[in-house]
Amino acid sequence: MSTQTASTQSSDLLRFITCGSVDDGKSTLIGRLLHAAHALPDDQLSALADESRRFGTQGDQLDFALLVDGLSAEREQGITIDVAYRFFATARRKFIVADTPGHEQYTRNMATGASTADLAIILVDARKGVLTQTRRHSHLVSLLGIKQVVLAVNKLDLVDWSRERFEEIERDYREFAQRLDFEHIVAIPLSALHGDNIAQRSTHTSWHQGPSLLEHLETVAVATADTSGPLRLPVQWVCRPDLDFRGYAGRMLGGKARAGDAVRILPSGRQTRIARIVGFGGDLAEAARGDSVMLTLEDEIDASRGDVICAAAEPASVADQFETTLVWMDDAAMLPGRPYLIKLGATTVGASFSQPKYAIDVNNFDKLAARTLELNGIGVVNVSLDRAVPFDAYADNRDMGGFIVIDRYSNQTVGAGLIHFALRRSQNIHWQAVDVDKQARLRQNGHRPCVLWLTGLSGSGKSTIANIVERQLHALGVRTYLLDGDNIRHGLSKDLGFTDADRVENIRRVGEVARLMVDAGLVVLTAFISPFRSERALARSMVDDGEFLEIFVDTPLAVVEARDPKGLYRKARRGELSNFTGIDSPYEAPATPELHIDTTQQTPEQAASRIVDALFERGIVQRHT
Amino acid sequence: MAAKWQAPYTAFFAAVMPMSSSHLRRLEAESIDIFREAVAESERPVMLYSIGKDSSVLLHLARKAFHPARLPFPLLHVDTTWKFRAMYEMRDRLAREGRFELLVYRNPEAERLGINPIEHGSARHTDLWKTQGLKLALDHYRFDLAFGGARRDEEKSRAKERVFSFRTAQHGWDPKNQRPELWRLYNARKNPGESIRVFPLSNWTELDVWQYIRAENIEVVPLYFAANRPVVERDGALIMVDDARLPLHKGEQVQQRRVRFRTLGCYPLTGAIESDADTLDAIITEMEHAHTSERQGRIIDRDGGSSMERKKAEGYF
Q1: pTM check: above 0.80
Q2: Chain B residues within 8 A of A249 when measuring between CB atoms
Q3: Distance (Å, rounded) from C-alpha B243 to C-alpha B268?
Q4: ipTM of the assembly?
Q5: A232-311: in CATH 3.60.150.10
Q6: Is A530 a catalytic residue?
Q7: Distance (Å, rounded) from C-alpha A336 to C-alpha A534?
Q8: Min Cα separation B309/chain A (Å)
Q9: Would you call A7 and B2 a contact, using CB atoms and an 8 Å cutoff?
Q10: What superfamily would CATH give domain A317-428?
Q11: Which of A57, A369, A408, B238 could staple B231 via S-S, CB 3.0–4.6 A?
């Protein structure tokens, strides 16, 4: 299993990210590294000396931070506001540094820098120790799959090179980092300002046995090509210079390719073999992860942009619903149910998100209830796509499991997601065309179909009311069917529990069944708690306009708890039932239901009559039938 | 400068690694990926061609990216009429050989006003011919995506440029409102009238460019190689007297010096360096020991600390 991107597999290059709070000395550290590796030409040094006098904070000394803070606005504010990439090389390695900002509102930039890095330098001010920001950055870095961390304890000169202080900070950090996915943490005492332990070991820290920062960066192991997994090649561009040539161009996101290898094209699932790997100066024998290639296939298969050519024996998964970790990067909060676009590999597809199952407090890893994700918010969210796409879990392949979210209107990149797993496997089901259609059934039935969707807390009276409505409609000659929560749970959804994800899936199934029954011409009554707005909206979207009546059976929690017909609230309060709506799982009341029934003011019979009247009023059922 | 600034890494400095081929292969793969993605996501792409070494590498990568198909876009040279003669010679010869479809655009207003670097100064010359010229050219041909050869190692504000860099309908660049680029996913969506600048060489350094030129045997303008050339010393720079349009100031003497150029632009604005490096190997060796940055020879970058950033916000490439 590999979490490394192909671009970083060769050990002659290390991509790393630097993270720290404002004033931890991050820009100074990078300036120091560039200087130590002789990446600073004379004219830049003299410009720096000039600017140090004008803007600097270090008196007559060079202010390395000025060198790194490229944009004039941030130079004036004295903070770095965007991701900047720096390049330097030593005899052993070439380095690309993503310099990312420390303050909270720019988490998105840190995620950006971390997404292509192999290693993170987490900078801590020796006087301040491990801060909220330190934890936030570490968590983000871990989330994006970085395994190698350097804990750079900076400004040690300001604590008199105290070994005790250094070790205390290292201890704090290691204890905190136990909850993260790091494989390797190295702590190094530094003074970036004075250059101690940057390139050479400092005499001030003779007690430090480890390497200097640059020594460590030059020698730390980075992933190699043999951990590259099975073949993954998203088709990026189809090359058709003439009728005889059809080439599939793309970047290898996993594995190796050789002429003759058996491949499977996803999502179609069709199988063939690689015919040629076309190179500029003749065919290539082999291509590996990270290469940009042009393949031809043995069979005439119509693959297009976004399809993924996979190793036949180990194809990627294909699905249209995933559980993901979502990092939100836009000022406008993520709206559950709102249509967005996601880009995954070479595929751009319509997508919508569920309400977060929970948001993650990156300071202490607590799971927080959340209705949405604000700028810099991170949460676990289900995503539902307009069509099924090939993917791998992010933990298996960063490039096959990481996606960006694009706003359909502003075209901005508003979020980034990491796929955990598919919520259900997609199958190759084709719609069956039929001659007897909905209109034909409608004429025979003598009434229009619809869904009467009753929602409300457990014990609010949904089933009781639904039963009376069905009895009355049956007497009127209307073809009905009642889908009841408990009954569905014993059959269709008996494999599901009560987590948010399972509730979403349960309601999706009920919605699908209701849709089929509406197609069959029935008036369908459903009696489910259905606590989430987005899933009710989903069920509504499955049928035509005017065919969905949301009926809010409104009983206050205190009243249902007092009634407690099945004794469930007592159990939930005792902690014997978890995820119980109203107790430890939210109920989102409908904002604009077609009918709002206040059960403290009406009997079930009165409520049922109101519902039947509504069907008359809407012409779904005619009075004379 | 205090003694503690002395380089601790002199040994490494002297021996800056001969970059392994795996490193160049990785850079090449990334650039090809960027080319293909941009072409797949745009309607009217174009490649800006400045005839310099970066453009030569860019062109080579583009041909590799789409081989065996022809280049799916034309090359656009936004001309200032003041480039070195050797640059025009190479441009026209390659176009004649059918390597690419060449468009040459000259800002009609600059042409009408006779704007030149001698009388109007580098800032005005560059603004009208290059910055305004580029905007007019993109509007004229209605290109929605333009490839450029800029690298992040060139200059501070370039270090923050995205690979896919969004421009408003007025060609403005807002450095504080850039789209985050994660993994290798590039967001190329835009509204009508807006455009994207794409920089396939973002992660290349000057040294990488030369090593690649050597590895792939790419043709570059001969001015990059040392030769005896007629130059005058002006404001500390060596300016080549490339044609009769360069008036000599009082006391200036045209001298034959052995020089070469690290970067090429308008000849009166481009300083040469004294050098004996007349082969690719010699250039690369020289660069490994260089103490100055490549843009240092460019006179246009020097007016004020934020010069490049300001020009970019105004639409300069």
Answers
A1: no
A2: 36, 65-66
A3: 10
A4: 0.84
A5: no
A6: yes
A7: 6
A8: 7
A9: no
A10: Translation factors (2.40.30.10)
A11: B238
